[in-house]
Amino acid sequence: MNRIDRLTAILIHLQGKPRVPIEELEERFEMSRRTLFRDIRSLMEAGVPIGGDAGQGYFIVEGYHLPPVVFNKEEAAAILLGAKLIEKNADDAVSKQFQEAMIKIKAVLRYNDKEFLDNLDKSISVVGSPSTQQIGFPESHIGDIQSALALKKKIEITYFSNYNETISVRTVSPLGLVFYTGRWHLIAHCHLREDLRDFRTDRIQKIRVTNENYNPVDYPDHSSFIYGMIGGTEKNEGIIRFSKEVSRFIQDQKYFYGFVSETKTEKHVEMTFLTPHYKYLARWILMFLSEAEVISPPELKELVIAYSEELTRHHNSRTPVT
Fold first, then answer.
1. For labelling alongside 272, which of 39, 76, 248, 307 has CA 20 to 30 A away?
2. pLDDT of 236-255, one tens digit each?
3. Do strands 57-60 and 153-161 pair parallel, antiparallel, or not at all (unpaired)?
4. Are strands 292-296 and 259-264 parallel, antiparallel or unpaired?
5. Is residue 292 a contact partner of residue 247, using CB atoms and an 8 Å limit?
6. Judging by beta carbons within 10 Å of its beta carbon (0-12, 13-18, 19+), is residue 172 exposed, middle or buried?
């Protein structure tokens, strides 16, 4: 990146946040602090009103605006890919807003880049998972949740609990919006239960953003809560030896079962997993028949044997169809 492009990039970065720590600029532009000081001084000498210092971070004085930003075709292509994912994995309101944003992005592209993006648009598609397609992502109130998160406002929701098929009205402090298992989840402190809760956004029937503020630091870290919801809090180790032939076909699958590391030998690959449930891992191992062997612990091996015997008894007891 030449110096002119770098100065422009620094200016855009500063324009995008209320205050930017010098460490953040160092990390992004991979340069020394001394060089950054020199670039910031050059911007100031060119008339850009930059405030702050290395200790508190730098900012653009309010009221100063950059001229319209022009995207290059690679940046526009990356945003197009994001738009395709958003279209399949967000509710109708957010999807429509993203489409409007894409129209504005295309409007500022050079003529040749517009043609490039149009051709690319016709060639990229995202196929939703069966669960996603079944839900159809109805109005999930994602826009309101985003607003409440940004403004740190409590929200009142009317929520349908699937496990007991009841509807309740709750006031919550939203802490995170997370996409996993093919759905959006609101992680929030529920003031009815006085604890963190996971609310599927497609089960929120009504939502109202209140005028009451909250401070996120008053509540536990929602990232740890999410880990507990998805992977469980217990970490049980399991070591499995796979044939090399099979190991080639589970490179993606293994991460869903808590894969940690692997050791390769001439004929086998020994993989270590951390799982909250040995039963879950044992059923997966059965898929590979004699191509997988449990090395440890004995508890996991016994489960695999028990499930194998159960499966054999089940099929031996079936009456043949004549």
1. 307
2. 899 999 999 888 888 778 87
3. unpaired
4. unpaired
5. no
6. buried
Encoding tokens for residue 218?
Answer: 């008053």
Global pTM value: 0.55
Instruction: For 22-48, write each residue's pLDDT tens digit.
Output: 999 998 888 899 999 999 999 888 888
Task: Tell how far CA 193 is from the center of its chain.
Answer: 26
For helices 278-285 and 298-316, the axis angle rounded to 10 degrees is 60
Which residue type sits at 63? G
- Is the pLDDT confidence value at 308 over 80? yes
Pick the closest to residue 173 from 203, 151, 153, 144 (CA basis).
153
DSSP structure string for 178-244:
EEETTEEEEEEEETTTTEEEEEEGGGEEEEEEEEEE--GGGS--HHHHHHHHHH-S--EEEEEEEEH
- What is the distance, to the nearest Å, from the Cα of residue 305 to the centroid of all Cα atoms in its chain? 37
Q: Is 309 exposed, middle or buried (0-12, 13-18, 19+ CB in 10 A)?
A: exposed
What the chain holds in terms of domains, given with CATH numbers, is 3-60 (1.10.10.10), 73-126 (no CATH), 138-224 (2.30.30), 236-316 (3.30.70)
